[in-house]
Amino acid sequence: MSAPAPDHARPVLDGSSLFLLDDLPLDGDEVLVDGPEGRHAVDVVRLAPGEPVRVGDGRGALVEGVVVDAGPAGLRVRVTARHEVPAAEPEFVLVQALPKGDRGPLAVELATELGVDRVIPWAAARCVTRWREDRIDKGLAKWRAAARAAAKQSRRPRVPEVADLMTTRQVCGELADVDLALVLHEQARRPLAGVELPDSGTVAVVVGPEGGLTDGEVVALRAAGAQAVRLGPEVLRTSTAGAAALAALSVRSRWS
Questions:
Q1: Does an H or E element contain 139, and which?
Q2: Does the CA dihedral 80-86-89-90 come out positive or negative?
Q3: Rg (CA), the chain
Q4: How many whole angstroms separate alpha carbon 72 and alpha carbon 155?
Q5: Burial 177-189 (b: 16+ CB within 10 A, else e)
Q6: Where is the Ribosomal RNA small subunit methyltransferase E methyltransferase domain (predicted)?
Q7: What's the CATH class of domain 91-251?
């Protein structure tokens, strides 16, 4: 019996677990979830034959199936449906200044759960945390692992991209190509709730560091086309402000 053809409609998510494979087979009646994912499924989640699961590649390809066997080799899944999940509209990009301590992965985790599609780590002038040249790869690895884990937890078939660390000049270059760029600023008069959102294209949200944006950064971001907006009267941590903004944007676009 041939495997089901891919369905390009967005599947309705239920409570079944999601596992990610970098190389998801494009066809076939069964999928083997092996390696770390398979060990996690068998030893931690303790899935048993007959239970429903989803397996994706993190880029939109998604398999629905039923566990056939769970053992030392991993999780063997019988395919019942295949989907090609389209990217959500509009695309959400978060430009996140490096938070202090270990709050960077937290910011990525929250943003992933709330719908971000791309995260840009930003070395803003007043960042307390600095990724030295020999620590950039380690920092990026932590952020990317947080995005992958959060995508699985929230059952997102697409794992957000975490870009390389960028300077202010590079960030401004990125903003010049988006459809709507917003900078969260506590002194801004315009509320985020009052901004008109595009139905498609790319919406970017810029979140500064704990010490705030410098005057030069504000000027540069505005010159790149960004609008300064505020979330509300409270001042949020840089690690949670992006997530709050994404939630507000999702309510007005994707979740409506």
A1: helix 136-153
A2: positive
A3: 20
A4: 25
A5: ebebbbbbbbebe
A6: 91-249
A7: alpha beta
- Between 60 and 26, the more confident residue is 60
Residue 121, pLDDT > 60, answer yes
Domains 18-84 and 91-251 share a fold: no
**Sequence letter at residue 21:** L
Are 142 and 105 a contacting pair, CB within 8 Å? Answer: yes
Instruction: Encode pLDDT of 144-159 as tens digits.
Output: 999 999 999 999 999 9
Note the CATH number of domain 18-84: 2.40.240.20
Long-range contacts of 240-244 (CB under 8 A, 24+ apart): 240/107, 240/110, 241/184, 241/207, 242/94, 242/96, 242/107, 242/110, 242/111, 242/116, 242/184, 242/205, 242/207, 243/107, 243/110, 243/111, 243/113, 243/114
Calpha distance 8→212 (Å, rounded): 43
**Cα–Cα dist 96/107, whole Å:** 8
Q: What is the length of the chain?
A: 256
What is the rounded CA–CA span in Å between residue 235 and residue 178? 26
